[in-house]
């Protein structure tokens, strides 16, 4: 559950996204959130080795860097989401990458993929006509997101859904959009398992990993 001043809910990005372990609310430093599944749970699509590096090294490094950078600054006692919204440069980059990666892990699940149902499915069909057309548009956007970045399915302020690309540490937390689902298209996300084949990684994400229950919970 996101918190305002540590431990005090602010209702931003509410839904089934446990960014903060309630047992860690009194910790002074930011901590690497637990994965919602075991490191080998998404194999063979995403290997344990990828999680050892992407989660264990990259995500951890963003947390460590953030803790070092905010020491003695105005950001030291803010919760993660508030740092992302207020900071710039290195503090923003590391804070946003901590948040984005946690959101990405929750955007996948073992035996994921398939199609959403209910209100989210209706919103996707209203925007793209069919789920197949959405997948085509999402794939085109993710494959065409130049360099390092993130591709998001978002809910707009008017309740409709859209696909948004951000670059580097760019995040929906600083826009008016609510994140529903995301894929990390930095090369470190797929190079061990897919080498340079980003299209295959995006295809695998949509067909076998995407957590539509998580997206539906965020949409609600
Ligand atoms: Fe990453």
Strand content: 5-15%
CATH architecture descriptor name of the domain at 118-219: 3-Layer(bab) Sandwich
Assign an overall shape: globular
Bound molecules: fe (iii) ion
Tell me about the largest β-sheet: 3 strands, antiparallel
Structure classification: mainly alpha
CATH names the topology of the domain at 118-219 as minor pseudopilin epsh fold
Note the total helix count: 8
Query: Using only CA atoms, what is the Rg?
Result: 17 Å
Strand line-up of the largest beta sheet: 2-1-3
Average pLDDT rating? 91
Please provide the count of β strands.
3
The residue ranges in which pLDDT falls below 50 over 5 or more consecutive positions are 1-16, 21-27
Helix content: 40-55%
- Given this structure, which CATH class of the domain at 118-219 is correct? Alpha Beta
Span of the ends, CA to CA: 16 Å
Return the string of H and E elements.
HHHHHEEEHHH
What is the CATH H-level superfamily of the domain at 118-219? Iron/manganese superoxide dismutase, C-terminal domain
Describe this structure in words.
The protein has 220 residues and is mostly helical. The protein has a domain at 118-219: minor pseudopilin epsh fold, CATH 3.55.40. It has eight helices and three strands, in the order H-H-H-H-H-E-E-E-H-H-H. The chain has a three-stranded antiparallel beta sheet. A hairpin with a 5-residue loop joins strand 1 (149-155) and strand 2. Helix 2 (80-86) packs across helix 3 (89-106) and helix 4 (118-128) crosses helix 5. The longest helix is centred in the N-terminal third of the chain and has 23 residues, at 48-70. Bound molecules: fe (iii) ion (FE). Fe (iii) ion is lined by residues 54, 58, 101, 184, 186, 188-189. Fe (iii) ion binds next to helix 1.
